[in-house]
Amino acid sequence: MTELPDFNDPSLPTIVVGHPAIVNFRGEEVPVPPLLLEEAMKELDRLENELDRGEISSETGKRLLRQVYDVVDRVGEVVSPGMSCHSGCSACCRVMVATTASEAALIDERMKRGREEERLVWKQGIENRNALLESLSSRTIPPSDLTTFKGLVDTCEMYEHENQPCPFLGADRLCQIYEERPLLCRICWVLTDPADCLPGEGPPVKFRTRVFEKAHALCGAISATHFGDDRVSPIPYWFRSDG
Ligand code: SF4
Ligand code: SF4
Questions:
Q1: Is 33 exposed, middle or buried (0-12, 13-18, 19+ CB in 10 A)?
Q2: DSSP-based helix, strand, coil % in the chain, nearest 5
């Protein structure tokens, strides 16, 4: 059984943000119904209990991950009117997004469902970003391992300065794999001015709940249990030709 931290610990704050209150940059209070968070935590607890019951397989892992996504999306739908994020606002799609094996598997499924011309553009973007990632990771001493959290941390600032969009960001600044985007893209809610998300600005103040923290831990646990893979890597790195 994969042990997760106790996110139900009452000493943990329900909301962790850099502001004293849940107020956005427009000065509006953001309502976060406690019952919604409570029910979301119960659902995540249920998924945690299901983690290693039944068949251990990538199909089970993908099913569980989709259920985790459903839980965080339900919270996202309720809080989104109070957030700064809106369609086409995409500075956050120019940072290094850390993903696990199970999330990469859903992105892989989405790519396979894409049209041929889309797949070609994605493939080219992935190759370009991976060449950049390899080049940046070789500049640290010692070179950064982009399959570890430390390697990502050591390289992410350099990557952000390159101002490169995610390979799945369309020319219309919309996510082309929206329904299968990874967890971090689903829980990246910001209370401050969207301008604070631009490279070199900010830092933006993010909205956080225990629900998101637990969902994040579950993504790792699902990947370890059902994919036998506890690595974490930038999105394109999972799809490198020699990977
Ligand atoms: S995280 Fe920042 S850049 Fe991304 S949608 Fe929200 S406000 Fe816009
Ligand atoms: S997967 Fe989609 S939402 Fe996430 S960084 Fe890429 S384009 Fe943006």
A1: exposed
A2: 55, 5, 40
Cβ-in-10-Å burial (0-12, 13-18, 19+) of 124 comes to exposed
Reported residue count of the chain is 243
Closest ligand 1 atom number to CA of residue 206: 1
How large is the average pLDDT for residues 148-172? 94
Identity of residue 83? M
Beta strands, E only, the chain: 98-100, 232-234
Local confidence band at 16 (pLDDT 50, 70, 90 cut-offs): very low
Question: 23-37, 93-107, 186-200: which has the highest mean pLDDT?
Answer: 93-107
Q: Would the pLDDT of 17 be above 80?
A: no
Q: Which of 73, 129, 185, 189 to mutate to test the pocket of ligand 2 (most atoms within 8 A of CB)?
A: 185
Evaluate if residue 225 carries a pLDDT over 90: yes
Q: Could you tell me the residue ranges of all domains in the chain? A: 34-239
Ligand 1 and 232: CB distance under 6 A: no
User: Does the pLDDT value for residue 56 go beyond 90?
Assistant: yes
Cβ(190) to ligand 1 under 6 A?
yes
What phi-psi label fits residue 107: left (phi over 0), alpha (psi between -120 and 50 degrees) or beta? alpha
Q: Phi/psi of residue 3, each to 5°?
A: -85, 125
- Kindly tell me if the per-residue pLDDT of 50 is higher than 60: yes
Q: Which atom of ligand 2 is nearest to the CA of 90?
A: 8
**What whole-number distance in Å separates Cα of residue 123 and Cα of residue 150?**
26
